[in-house]
Amino acid sequence: MELNLFSYTSVARDDSAQPGQSARSSHLPLREAPARPEPAQSQESTESTDDLDPPPTYNSIVPPFAIACSRFVAHRRWIINLVVTAGVFVFLTVMFVRTGSSGPANHCTQPPPMSPSTNTSSGHQPWSAQVFTDPEWQNLFAKRLGQAISFQTVSYDSVAGAGLSNPTNYSEFDRFHQFLQSSYPRIHDKFAWTKVANYSLVYILKGSDPLLKPMMLSAHQDVAPVSPTSAGQWFYPPFSGTITSGYIWGRGASDAKNSMMAMLEAIESLLTTGFEPRRTIIMAFGHDEETESAGAQAIAAYLEANGYLGNVEFVLNDGSMIRPELDTNFASIGTAEKGYMDIQITVRTPGGSSVVMPIRSSIAVLSAIIGQLQITRFTPKLHDLDPFMVQLRCYAEHAPPSAVELSQDRRNLIMGGSFSRTFLIKILSESPVLYSMMATTETATVIQGGHKSNTLPDQASAVLNHRIASFDSSTSVRKHIVDTVRRMEEAFGFEIFLYDENTNIRTAIRKVDTASHGDPKFSGAQYFEAISFGEIEVRVLRGTVEPSVVSDSFGSEPFDVLVGTIRHVFEPRRHGSYHPMPDQRVYGTPTLEPGSTDAKWYRNLTSNIFRFSPFFSNETFGSHDVNERIGQHTYSLGVLFYHELVRNFDEGKRSRTRSQHDSRTQA
C-alpha cells in the first residue's frame, strides 16, 4: 500500500512560515526597516553625564555595543520573532512526530508460529503438510473447485423502482448441494447438517469436551452476476471452471467458493484420518451474501435457538487476504466491518413533450442532488483503536528498511500522536482507497430516468450505496442526505418526503399547504405552479446494517492462534511457498473490512469475529470482475491453513466460561 506522505513536509512548512503574523505582514519583503530618529531626551541624558566621575576604561566600549544591540532589536524585532516562533514550531513538531507520545506502545506484537502436535486427538497420524502442496493433491483440489464454479449460483439484486428484478435460479443451488454430498461423503455422514432459508447450509459436529466453546467457519455459496457487456472479455467461459496455466478460472474462484471449498476439503481430509474433535465444529454457508444476506440471518437465528447464543469461541468468515507489499507480507484480518445502507432518491415532476424546456426537470434536479452529495462528503477520522490505524502501525513497525514507500519520516508520522494524526488523515485522504478506510462512503450505483428521447420523464431515481464508518450510523447518514436535499429545496420549491422500508413509515419533510397562500417564496400563479411542480422522495431501502463492533486482536487467544497458524502455514521457510518479497515473513495485522459480509449477522454468537481468506492476493484476481481466477498453489495452501487451524484450536486452551463471556460482552 503506497503511503504518499512526502507532501507532509511542504504542508508543515507552509503552515509554519510566519505563525502569528497578519496577512499583510506575512508578505513583507526581507529588507531593513527605515531608521527612526533618536528621541531628544536621549541626547540630553547623554550630555548630563559630563559632571559624573569617569567610568573604568573597559566600560568605554560597552555603551556603543549596547546601543548597537538596542538598535538592531528595535529595527529588526519582527525577524527575531519569526526565528523564535519557527524554532518553537520545529521543536514541537519533532517532539510530537518523532516521539509519538500519545500513541500506544507494543502496537503489533506478533505471536510465534503455531503448529499442531504430531498426532491428532484421536491417536491417528495426520496427513503431512507436504501432502497439500503435492501436485497430485493440488490437481484434485483444483478439479473439485472447478466443478463447484460450474454451478451458476448467482444472486441478483431486486430494488423496487430501480429496474433490478432478475430472479435467482435456485435450481442451481439444489444441484450444487447434490454435488457437495457426493464429493464430501464423510462430512455428510459425520456432521449433523440442515438447510435454513431453503438454500443456506449449516453443519455441526459435536466435540467430546462440552467445556470447549465451538469454532465456526463460514463462507458463502453465491456469486456475483457476470455482466452481459463483459462476457466476451473472459479468456475462458465464466462458469466453465477451466484449469490451465496454474490457475482455476471462473466466477467464484476468488469470491468466495475458494474459501468454502477449502474449508470442506480440510475437514474431509481430517475425517479421513479418523479425526474426532474435542471442540465442536460449525460450518455455515449462506446463499445470498451478494445481496441481502437473508441466509446468514436465518443461520444466526437457527444457531441462537439451538444453544449457541454467546457461546461460540470465534467465527472465521471469508474476507481480506495475505498481501505481499512493502517488501514483506501482511495477512490482513478484518476485525470489524463497515455498516451498510442503500438510499433511493426519486424526483417526480410533470412529464410531457420535450418541445418546451422545463425549468426543473426530474433528471436535472436528481443530477443536481447527486452532484451536491458528492461534494459534501463525509469527514474522515482515525482513532487509536481503529483497525485501520493499528494496521498502519503494523506497517510502520514491521516493514523492512528496504521498503522505500515507507521512509523513516513516514513511519514517524504514523507512530506519532494526535498532533501528527491531523496531517496523516489529510494526506491519506488524497487516495480514494485510503479515504474509504477512514470515512463513510457514498456512491451512486443505480440510476434510472426517461424512456424516450423526445419525452420528458415524470420520474427519475438513483440508488446511493453507503458503507458506514464505525463512528457514524444509519441515522447520521440519513440526516446527511435529508439535510442536503432540504438545502437544495430552496432552489426547487418541491415537497420532500422520507420513507423507510424497514419501518414502512412515510414522513413529510417539507409539505406545501395548498390551503395557505403564505409561502414567502411564491405568490399568485407562481405559488400554485410550484406546488404542482413535483416532489422528492428519500427512501431508505431494506437491508440497513449498523457498523460492527471491533473484535479484540493482539493479546486475545483466538486472534493470536489465528496469526500463529498463518505464520506456520504461509511463511515459506516452512512449506516452500513462493512469492517474490525480500522479507519472506508473514505479519498478521487487524484491518477494517470495507465491504459487507455475512459475518455481521453472527455478532450475537461471539465477540470474536474475523474476516480472512487464506490466500495470497497476488495469486488471486478478478473478484466481481472479468477473468476471475486463483492460483492452484495458493489454493492448496488455503486448504492446509484450515486443516491446521482446526487442529490448533482443538488442541488449545480451555475457553472462558459462559458467565465470563457474558460479563465481557456487557462491559
Describe the structure in your own words.
With about 675 residues, the chain is α+β, with helices and mostly antiparallel strands. Among the domains are: about 130-155 and about 165-335 and about 550-665, Zn peptidases (Aminopeptidase, 3-Layer(aba) Sandwich); about 340-380 and about 440-540, Alpha-Beta Plaits (2-Layer Sandwich), CATH 3.30.70. The protein is about 35% helix and about 20% strand. The protein contains 21 helices and 20 strands. Strands 1, 2, 3, 6, 7, 8, 17 and 18 form an eight-stranded mixed sheet that branches. A six-stranded mixed sheet has the order 11-13-9-16-14-15, covered by helices on one side. A hairpin with a 7-residue loop joins β19 and β20 (about 630). α6 crosses α9 (about 255-270) and α9 (about 255-270) crosses α20. The longest helix has 23 residues, at about 75-100. The radius of gyration is 33 Å and the shape is globular. The two termini are about 35 Å apart. Residues about 1-55, about 55-60, about 95-105, about 160-165, about 515-530 and about 655-665 have low confidence and may be disordered.
Short description:
This protein has 667 residues and is α+β, with helices and mostly antiparallel strands. The strands form four sheets. Strands 1, 2, 3, 6, 7, 8, 17 and 18 form an eight-stranded mixed beta sheet that branches. It has a six-stranded mixed beta sheet with strand order 11-13-9-16-14-15, covered by helices on one side. The protein has a four-stranded antiparallel beta sheet with strand order 4-5-20-19.
Keywords:
single chain; 667 residues; alpha+beta; Aminopeptidase; Alpha-Beta Plaits; 8-stranded mixed sheet; 6-stranded mixed sheet; 20 strands; globular; disordered N terminus
